[in-house]
Amino acid sequence: MTASTHDTFVALERGTPALFVWSARLLPVALAGQFFIAGQSLFAGLPWSIHGMVGGMAGVPIVIMAIMACAIGYLRGFAWWACGALALYGVQIVLATGDATMLALHPFNASLLLITALVLLAKIERRRALHT
Q1: Which of 125, 68, 58 is nearest to 88 (CA)?
Q2: Sign of the alpha-carbon torsion through 114, 112, 23, 14
Q3: Cα 50 to Cα 81: distance, rounded to the nearest angstrom
Q4: Shortest CA distance to 128 belongs to which of 9, 28, 29, 23?
Q5: Using CA atoms, how far apart are residues 25 and 65, in angstroms rounded to an integer?
Q6: Which residues contact 116 (CB under 8 A, 6 or more apart)?
C-alpha cells in the first residue's frame, strides 16, 4: 500500500506524534470506563456526577486528535475519523442534557463513539506498524 492509495500513510518517515498516539489509546479506555461507571451508577448506587466528570475528561483526547489531525498536514488522513469522534462527542453532550427520550439515545451514541475510537486507534497503530 502506498501513500497515494491510503492518505493515512502519508509521510511515514515523519512518524506519528506521541500525543496523537496516546490520545487514541486513551480514548477507548476512557469510554470503556464510562460504560463501567454508568453500570455502577445504575446498579450499585455510584453518583452520576462521576460519570459526568469522566465523560468531560474523555473529551480531552478527542479534541487533541481532532485539532492535530486538522492542523498537521501528514495527519489529515485521520481528520474524517477524528472530527467524526468530535461530532459524536458533541451529540453525546446534547443527549446527556436532554429529556428522557434523548437520554435513552445516549448509550447508543456512546457505542458509536466507541466504535469510531477503535477504528481510529486501529488506523493509527497500522500507520505506526508500517513506519517501523
Answers
A1: 58
A2: positive
A3: 27
A4: 9
A5: 11
A6: 81, 84, 85, 88
For 63-125, the three-class secondary structure string (H helix, E strand, C coil) is HHHHHHHHHCHHHHHHHHHHHHHHHHHHHHHHHHCCCHHHHHCHHHHHHHHHHHHHHHHHHHH
Per-residue model confidence as pLDDT tens digits over 68-127: 999 999 999 999 999 999 999 999 999 999 999 999 999 999 999 999 999 999 999 999
CA distance 111 to 39: 14
Quote the CA–CA distance of 17 and 23 in Å, as a whole number: 10
pLDDT tens across 9-46, in order?
A: 888 888 899 999 999 999 999 999 999 999 999 999 99
Measuring CA to CA, which residue among 58, 49, 106, 122 is closest to residue 86? 58
Q: How high is the pLDDT of residue 49?
A: 95
What distance in Å separates the CA atoms of residue 44 and residue 38, rounded to the nearest whole number? 10
Query: Grid coordinates standing for 105?
Result: 439515545
Cell of 72: 498537521
Measured in residues, the chain has a length of 132
